Amino acid sequence: MSPTPAPTAAAPAAAAPRARRAPGTAARRRRSPDLLRGAAGVLVFVVLWELAGRAGLLDRKVVPLASATLERAARLAGDGEFLGDVGTTLTAWALGMLLTLAIAVPAGLLIGSVPAVRIATRPFVEFLRPIPSVAVIPLAMMIFPATLHLKLAVIAYGATWPILVNTVYGLREVDPVAVQTLRAFGFGRLAVLFRVALPTVAPFVATGTRVASGVALILAISVELVNGGTSGVGVYLIEAGGSADGLEMIVAASVWAGLFGLLFDVLFTRAEHHLFRWRRAAA
């Protein structure tokens, strides 16, 4: 009689495969706490502002109550005159950004790609870049009599630097092995630029554009404040200064200007994350 085989331990069940998360799920989870913290910070600031005003720590003749400012800002959202001023400023901002991109990106690619051009232009770039953009407004007023042309010139001057510098630095990150490989297969300078350099530089240009958008908004309003004109947020601020409740109107309009700047930053950041998701995955 054959011996009964000894019982063997049951093979462990195969571990169930983990469900793979969608690529954007982790990023969205990281952003949600950041948004909540940001909203909480704004809320705390507004509450402290209101309490300080009511406690007499802030002079209401200098700093209005937060509640009065927010109420005035809400009313401005339905003010046709103010909305027209906003449209004028945002039109100059959009045209100025397009002009800035048309100047800064090609110039950055040329400076970053050709060593001789980089060496020749570096003194001019380093001389002009530290000059405050607001300081060129009086000179620009003498050259450009039309208000829109004046805004575009000042915006193009001040907003060019973040994009130009980021483009030049982005070219330094181009993989030399990829460049040499394409050249070994007979690809010319333009082919290397479009196939290797531009995909590498694009995230840097996007970051520079996000920074430049805030600079362009500041300069558009600054030109309106200095030069005046018929419409614009800066013109509204000047006219509000002569009214009885001018302080609340000025602070409320400034709140809207800050909100537009925040909106542009959020939109450009979201676009950057969406378009260059591959860069974060590679990192």
Give the key terms.
single chain, 283 residues, mainly alpha, MetI-like fold, 11 helices
Structure description:
76% of the residues lie in helices and 0% in strands. It contains eleven helices and no strands. The protein is mainly α. Helix 2 (66-76) crosses helix 10 (246-275), helix 3 (80-113) packs antiparallel against helix 4 and helix 3 runs antiparallel to helix 8. The chain has a single domain (80-282), classed as MetI-like fold (Orthogonal Bundle). Belongs to the binding-protein-dependent transport system permease family.
Tertiary shape? globular
Poorly predicted runs: 4-17
H and E order: HHHHHHHHHHH
Instruction: State the distance separating the first and last CA atoms.
Output: 67 Å
Overall average pLDDT: 84
Produce a short descriptive summary.
The protein is mainly α and 283 residues long. The chain has eleven helices and no strands.
Helix-strand blueprint:
Blueprint: H1 23-54, H2 66-76, H3 80-113, H4 115-128, H5 137-143, H6 147-171, H7 176-184, H8 189-227, H9 233-240, H10 246-275, H11 277-282
